[in-house]
Amino acid sequence: MQSAGFDYSSGSFWSAFGTGGFADEPPLLEELGINFEHIKTKSLAVLNPFRIVPDTIMDDADLAGPLLFMLLFGVFLMLSGKVHFGYIYGVGLLGVVSIFLILNLMSGNGIDWSRTASVLGYCLLPMVMLSGFSVVLPLGGFVGLVLTVVSILWCSFSSSGMFTSVLHMSEQRFLVAYPVGLFYASFALMTVF
């Protein structure tokens, strides 16, 4: 198909504006670095924290899953009457920076900030489920207290397991779990109150 000297079917400049695209162009999700298989694998590792976590699980530090979980967390809080999107991202950023510094002080080989954000974001999944429960039932009573404590422990156990597996710090799991537990407790406070 030719019009006014332009060839729309080949890889010309104008084919980028059509629906055909370039012939050797990768799909959009692949170009953005979003891999749903990795998101599923890491989410299942969080949902089953008693399984041995391989140290290669965080070889790619994607942030698509954590951003999705933080968005879902904020949407569930909004549905329960609490609009805390700014607090969520602020506490998340401050927590990533502080836990990044703590882990690099504790371990010999260190970790980069994107892997820290990826682990903390993926392990937010139980807190997202808690915020989903807060839409249908109030968390101010005994059942809410139990669910909140369980979700904090679940998030802390999963993330400390991933951090100690990636950083080869098997003897320091409780030292890692304490600041991470405080991080997730701040998200639990947003959910309950």
TrEMBL record:
It is a multi-pass membrane protein. Coiled coil: none annotated. It comes from the Eukaryota. Residues 47-190 form the Yip1 domain. One of its GO terms (biological process) is endoplasmic reticulum to Golgi vesicle-mediated transport. The chain crosses the membrane at residues 63-81, 87-107, 119-139, 145-167, 174-192. This is Protein YIP. It comes from Phascolomyces articulosus.
